[in-house]
Amino acid sequence: MTANRLAESLLALSQQEELVDLPKDYLLSESEDEGDCDGERKHQKLLEAISSLDGKNRRKLAERSEASLKVSEFNVSSEGSGEKLVLADLLEPVKTSSSLATVKKQLNRVKSKKTVELPLNKEEIERIHREVAFNKTSQVLSKWDPIVLKNRQAEQLVFPLEKEEPVIAPIEHVLSSWKARTPLEQEIFNLLHKNKQPVTDPLLTPVEKASLQAMSLEEAKMRRAELQRARALQSYYEAKARREKKIKSKKYHKVVKKGKAKKALKEFEQLRKVNPAAALEELEKIEKARMMERMSLKHQNSGKWAKSKAIMAKYDLEARQAMQEQLTKNKELTQKLQVASESEEEEGDGEEVEELLVPDAVNEVQMNVDRPNPWMLRSCTRDTKEAAAEEEDPEQLPEPEAHEVSESEGEERPVAEEDILLREFEERRSLRKRSELNQDAEPAGSQETKDSSSQEVLSELKALSQKLKENHQSRKQKASSEGTVPQVQREEPAPEEEEPLLLQKPERVQMLEELEKEECFQNKEVSRPVLEGRWSEKTPNNHPDAPKEKKKKEQMIDLQNLLTTQSLSVKSLAVPTIEMLEDEVERNQRQMIKEAFAGDDVIRDFLKEKREAVEASKPKDVDLTLPGWGEWGGVGLKPSAKKRRRFLIKAPEGPPRKDKNLPNVIINEKRNIHAAAHQVRVLPYPFTHHRQFERTIQTPIGSTWNTQRAFQKLTTPKVITKPGHIIKPIKAEDVGYRSSSRSDLSVIQRNPKRVTTRHKKQLKKNVD
Amino acid sequence: RRSPLVRASPPPGSARGLWRPRRGSQAARICHQVTPAEVASEGRCQPPPSLRPALPTNAPALGRGRDRTAKEPPPASAGRQNYGASQDPAKPASVRSSSHVTGSSMGKAEVACGRRRRGAALIWNPSWSSAGRATKMKVKMLSRNPDNYVRETKFDLQRVPRNYDPALHPFEVPREYVRALNATKLERVFAKPFLASLDGHRDGVNCLAKHPKNLATVLSGACDGEVRIWNLTQRKCIRTIQAHEGFVRGICTRFCGTSFFTVGDDKTVKQWKMDGPGYGEEEEPLHTILGKTVYTGIDHHWKEAVFATCGQQVDIWDEQRTNPICSMTWGFDSISSVKFNPIETFLLGSCASDRNIVLYDMRQATPLKKVILDMRTNTICWNPMEAFIFTAANEDYNLYTFDMRALDTPVMVHMDHVSAVLDVDYSPTGKEFVSASFDKSIRIFPVDKSRSREVYHTKRMQHVICVKWTSDSKYIMCGSDEMNIRLWKANASEKLGVLTSREKAAKDYNQKLKEKFQHHPHIKRIARHRHLPKSIYSQIQEQRIMKEALNRIKHSKPGSVPVVSEKKKHIVAVVK
């Protein structure tokens, strides 16, 4: 069996030429021989037998060297071997003979190698190729999905997509392609060349260029202007100095000097604030001046003038004063400049002495702000302010950016505002719609009454509020007038804050109050009188007239409601009692149904509805009375009955209703057939709800109803194209993708895989 | 923002900081007076600002809430909210807050008021009494900012102040409806799409090509082998070439616009220079390739020197060689057209006469997929903005827009033609395409609509064989059997030439109005109304009747005939 299988596999192998590695030496030939018929073999045997007759080589073994498909019984022979064939030999397993071992080994080797499956046929291979390629391409294409989606949903598309930059051909290019032909042109060119006029931009000769290089025009202009300004300023200053020098008035000079001193002081102050270091230097200078002053004899009343004055001083008051002045001046000048901070500090100390009770924290604030700045201590408060300002400074520092941001915001904000405006408009529109609807629904009479009633209510409320205010004010005044407020009242946390609440819901507060009372009662009996006192004190204020009235009104309404509901229930109960008299069998069921639907009386509802519809459809009277016209007007006054009668226009009786004789039907006569022809009957496609659609219709887009910007925004076209500009297909680079680096051509040339066989044949034919 | 010039005092709730005018504040104010709570709070806080005197800088913080000073808006933000009113940052916030800026026109006057009152308040300071409060009135001055009503030049339009409060405009919808109706009517009145007819060919125009760089140049090939180059601005033929013997089957320009290729019935591919020959030179093609079989179509690669021809197979050629670098087949049938994808340039689409559309990948040199339709597809065209979308013009009167990744169902079936559709071309914006039909008309379809928005025809226009949409998306050209090339406006009622800004605004507005009210029956009817030649009209009627009659679902037992959607109906198979 095994041999058989082996043979088969070998056969298969032999058909596949490529898988080679077959033991060709002997196996193949044998297998080929096997096909030969037995006749030959017999002939051979015969020949052998004949040859053996001569005695040589008599004992040749008949051997079977190879497993064959057909093992004929005749082949098993002991012929010539001289041995007797025993059955046991046949039963024995085949012994490993040396010649077979090699074969086996080889066969094993072949066996261990798996047979390669048949290659797919050409169509299938191609199909697989196609499928793979298709998947690959689909993947490549799917990168366009977001862009396509974006473009489809875009509010506006502007074509061409890429910004075209106008290409201006440089002049040398233009010139190089152009040649002077006519004599005039040639002459001009000659002239130009003679002057070495360059053709390129800038059109300057070398000389001009050199002169320009020396200094640019603008720079020169600037410099000249600067010089001019400086000269002018100098001349002004000189003129001024000359003029001032000529002034003889001593008073003037004094004033000037004083002014200068003041100015210097101010500057110094300023400097101190801004630049403490510079201020210190200044201070040193001042100190130096003081030293100089002390060293010198100026203002010491030792000069010639002073001496003369001293003589005169006895008699002349002025002279004495002058001397005094000088001395004070001297003192002033020589006085050591007190570092102002020290004095402040002293003051602070003084304060501390005064108020020892002041907590340390206050001083700590001062101590915390320790800097090398000598001015620091002096103006603590100011410093803290400045510090705050400095702290704010970093916020201000990135101002340019912030500014930009704010600018961009500013750009956006109007848009947002437009949106808000639009929304607001829409709201109002819808409001208006609703109110119109209401108006339609309500009969005119009721509306009017409502209006008047609402006005009445308004006026009432106004009066009320006035009262309240007065009340409140008087109370306040009272409170202020009472110098000694009892302890209880003081303990009230914020009476004024509590008040509105109280006013709004007097009962509720009362209840709370009571609750509190109870609690208090439980907890502390001691506090009870106090609270009660408080309560009693409050009550007059808490119950002004108006809320009471209001409350009463509400109660009335409630009562009515109660009444109506009660009557309903009574009636519904009454019907089944009549039924009870009828058939006993049906009774139960009916009873059950009645019970189940006890609440809703369908027929009554329908009748009511119909009555309302009829009422609504009736033409309404027009009341043209103007209250206050030709008579006294004001709150609470009604136009006289006569006047009302006179100005009431009665509506003509309308045509009879179609459902007049149909008690169980309401026919709506409101529907306007003529209008229906202009109305949209089916909800258009992109809308999902009719309200959406109505809203879009109700929002106007014209400039009559919108601001200019909103109008522009609302009417932006979806696609903008520039006339005369070529729109190229979208490119990967346009939308930020990297286009493939390799060109299609190079790719296709790199795999010269298939010029199909068919085509090859064709080509061959062509060549032939 | 225009507000009434005189405005009552703002509600005290908003008295803090700057009060911005709000529409509908009238109602709010009434409510405000009604609510007792607010009345109380008002009483508690202070008199309303109109009664309150302006507080001077050094005046004691009288009648101010504790939180008031703290919550005063910083001057910077206040300045931002204040519309155009000059504000002195040195001025204390209290003064500013007391002068409520209600609008740009009020701003300055009020600030001035505030200043004046400041002086007055100093006098008043010692005696803050209720009587004093009562007598002190806030006087608001009427003033207008000249910027709001003065024209810069006399050529400007007069500024008309307008109140946009919707409460004042109750009839906006009816008015807009009437405007929309008028706009629609005018659109129909001005719909004169036909611009010019280019005549000169001596046989039917078989193919058209656009110049890629020049809008004015158009190339056309005729059935007698003649190629003409036209100048659209002059509406003249500027060059005539006898390119082939027999039909010029296809023509395409090189992407750079320097040369163009033609294929003809004489089995040749010829490359021609775009510029004419110099004086005395003979009209000769740059290259000629002799093929074995007839080439029926040609298209050039969008970026590289590669072109594709179709016939018995799709061949890809390098311009420099006389042999194709690659040829692709799938089945054996004559391929009528081949088109390169303009975005992913290695993709090709072709349609063969055995009713299929085949897609190829040039890089992998293999076909990708094939879809078989009911009837033969004449041409396909790729969407220039959407890489995977193409539209096929079919013999069964329909056009099919496919997503090439999902060929089993077309994205949209475009129906309206009453005869075979012969050619299709996309608008360069990718939003619409135009189709030419054997029914002697061309139609414009939006990509996402199944019905056409426009139909063009003239009495003398015969079967339209080729159509092209110009690359500025404004015009359409079609070549037809009766030897003419016609030039149409893509938008029939569009005004040509430069528009003033007002014209533009009006145009945009009208467009939006038409869009807004397009579903209203009257407007819809007018917008849809087209005059059709009798042949087309009767055909439409006939086909409608036939469709009704052939409605098997309607005439058979419910459930016995499966419902197949229109999209699926025409697809026979997709072959991988």
Automatic annotation (TrEMBL), chain A:
Compositionally biased spans, kind Basic residues: 751-768
Organism whose genome encodes this protein: Cebus imitator (Panamanian white-faced capuchin)
GO cellular component, one term: cytosol
Composition bias type Acidic residues, residue spans: 342-357, 389-398
UniProt superkingdom: Eukaryota
Region annotation (Disordered) ranges: 336-554, 737-768
Residue spans of biased composition, Polar residues class: 738-749
Family the UniProt entry places it in: Belongs to the UTP14 family.
Record-level GO BP terms: rRNA processing
Biological classification of the source: Eukaryota, Metazoa, Chordata, Craniata, Vertebrata
Ranges of compositional bias, category Basic and acidic residues: 400-437, 518-527, 545-554
Name recorded for this polypeptide: UTP14A small subunit processome component
Automatic annotation (TrEMBL), chain B:
Official protein name in the record: DDB1- and CUL4-associated factor 13
GO terms for biological process, alphabetical: decidualization; epigenetic programming in the zygotic pronuclei; maturation of SSU-rRNA from tricistronic rRNA transcript (SSU-rRNA, 5.8S rRNA, LSU-rRNA); negative regulation of phosphatidylinositol 3-kinase/protein kinase B signal transduction; oocyte growth; proteasome-mediated ubiquitin-dependent protein catabolic process; protein ubiquitination; spindle assembly involved in female meiosis
Residue span of region Disordered: 1-112
Residue ranges with Low complexity bias: 94-105
Cellular compartment(s): Nucleus, Nucleolus
WD repeat intervals: 198-240, 414-455, 457-498
Molecular function per GO: nuclear estrogen receptor binding; ubiquitin-like ligase-substrate adaptor activity
SUPFAM superfamilies (alphabetical): WD40 repeat-like
Keyword tRNA processing: no
Gene: DCAF13
One Pfam family from the record: Sof1
Biological role stated in the UniProt entry: Part of the small subunit (SSU) processome, first precursor of the small eukaryotic ribosomal subunit. During the assembly of the SSU processome in the nucleolus, many ribosome biogenesis factors, an RNA chaperone and ribosomal proteins associate with the nascent pre-rRNA and work in concert to generate RNA folding, modifications, rearrangements and cleavage as well as targeted degradation of pre-ribosomal RNA by the RNA exosome. Participates in the 18S rRNA processing in growing oocytes, being essential for oocyte nonsurrounded nucleolus (NSN) to surrounded nucleolus (SN) transition.
Gene3D superfamilies for the chain: YVTN repeat-like/Quinoprotein amine dehydrogenase (2.130.10.10)
Recorded GO CC terms: cell junction; centrosome; Cul4-RING E3 ubiquitin ligase complex; cytosol; nucleoplasm; small-subunit processome
InterPro entries: Sof1, WD40/YVTN_repeat-like_dom_sf, WD40_repeat_CS, WD40_repeat_dom_sf, WD40_rpt, WD_repeat_DCAF13/WDSOF1
